[in-house]
């Protein structure tokens, strides 16, 4: 793994937090410079980014499961191809993000092991089930829509490899979001049963999607340092508000009702939502969501059942290398 | 089932296109079942890629069948509103994924055939089929490369992977003969230069397959009994389950647009 070489000078500096270097680093951030893998960085910056990027990667990989659940049942060949391509894109995002995380010095294997053991987190939204085809539309429309709100500012994140990854990811996500919305348009213009299916999916996904932006600003743990380091440029509540304001007219266009009868528009034109049930969020985060166990079990099963394949590939590569060496020696 | 099956007038050319479309759809569907569950992320990407190629081929062939038939059927009606007995795919492609070795052996046997087949079909006197063949040939060439590399890795990898790959070959071998058989309906198209005779490809297919299987330190079974029936709708029990999943929404909500 090439990142070890890149970061080889890092070990003895970790924890020392050389004051002059730290202030130089902050000055670079303040000047909107990009930090690259070879550059000196505070250990806490490295740790924060490794956690954030790998969580993002895990989310892409676990996120393949709820949507993958409908690939074999997609209702037309066009939808089937689009959904398969979408879930494949997500896998690509995961790979891309693990590679970005690896530039900080932790291997993909270690990161993935953290997820499989349940130690590392992924986005809680993927612990909800996709019960009907309308969920596929809703996930594209709202979950990808919320992800875009979160990720567009990350295209300007101070860490170069993450920022560049986000530019590409956002392009694909916005395509997915439009695809999801188009599924919703089709359902809402369809039969009464289809429209009811769409409303029901919105009812089930709305609140969990609002929770995707994280806890309210007063109690968010990581925001302060992340803001100082320009990893995070908007607060959870700011992004949530942007998302709601963008989504309300879309729901109106679809003729769907947002399941928050208390939601009102304030004098600035912002839609103010009713209180979010943060206890539900905590429960899902703690492993008690409807699908936490299923998701981890599915990932572990794929990993365990694939072990003999990965071992075979490694054994073959080793044999080949030995044969080539033997040939060269002749 | 809430929705009646469609009726298809299977003239030789419609039947021809449906047979190839069904091959591509069913194998593409099988590959799509892996999505999110593959042994490595790179392989998740590759399996989805091959699945998407095959789905694309299926859609073009169904659309062509619909145009030739001219009775208002379309790609989705062909895919979603025909029952097991109306499906015309090879028995090979409907075989369950099993473990990764089985999926790759199935893929290799089919792709090694499809690659030769579509390359030869580029000379078809039917311009639509020749164009579909040109696209499919490029895709199949990649499928051959990807799957054959895996056959070699698995066969010449560990004891376990060798055993699994050999089992897969032994189990699937009997479904390969059907790729080369021709019936009267197809004979007419071959004589007219619209289709090519797959039997002529068998020696080259066997050469490719034998080469890779030998390199992988595996062997082909001595038993040369070949199962037939997929082309006339006599399928294995597996296809019905695949279709009940594939068709569930279209059958549950008759006439809805998705």
Helical content band of chain B: 55-70%
Give me the Rg of chain B, rounded. 18 Å
Main sheet overview of chain A: 2 strands, antiparallel
Q: What would you call the structural class of chain A?
A: mainly alpha
What value does the Rg of chain A take, in angstroms? 22 Å
How are helices and strands ordered from N to C of chain B? HHHHHHHHHHH
* Content of β-strand of chain B: under 5%
Give the helix tally of chain A: 14
Residue-averaged pLDDT of chain A: 93
In the predicted model, the low-confidence regions of chain A spanning at least 5 consecutive residues are: 1-14
- The helix/strand series of chain A, from N terminus to C terminus, equals HHHHHHHHHHHEEHHH
Number of helices of chain B: 11
Notes on the structure:
The complex is a heterodimer of chains A (330) and B (258). Chain A has 330 residues and is an all-alpha fold. Chain A contains 14 helices and 2 strands; from the N terminus they run αααααααααααββααα. Chain A has a two-stranded antiparallel ribbon. In chain A, a hairpin with a 5-residue loop joins strand 1 and strand 2. In chain A, helix 5 packs antiparallel against helix 8 and helix 7 runs antiparallel to helix 11. The N terminus of chain A is likely disordered. Chain B has 258 residues and is an all-alpha fold. In chain B, helix 1 runs antiparallel to helix 2, helix 1 crosses helix 8 and helix 5 crosses helix 7. The mean pLDDT of chain B is 97. Classes of the chains: A mainly alpha (330), B mainly alpha (258). Chains A and B meet through helix 4, helix 5, helix 8, helix 13 and helix 14 of A and helix 1, helix 2, helix 3, helix 6 and helix 7 of B.
Notable traits:
heterodimer; A: 330 residues; mainly alpha; globular; disordered N terminus; B: 258 residues
